[in-house]
Amino acid sequence: MNVEKSKVVSIFSIRNFKFPGFALGKGAKGVFIRVHAKSLKKAKDKLRKLTSRSQDRNVRVVMKNVEVFIRGWLGYFSIADMRNAMKELDGWLRGRFRCYIWKQWKRTFTRKQALVKLGLKEWQAANSNCFNYWFMNSRL
Question: Which of 37, 73, 76, 68 is nearest to 50 (CA)?
Answer without folding.
Answer: 68
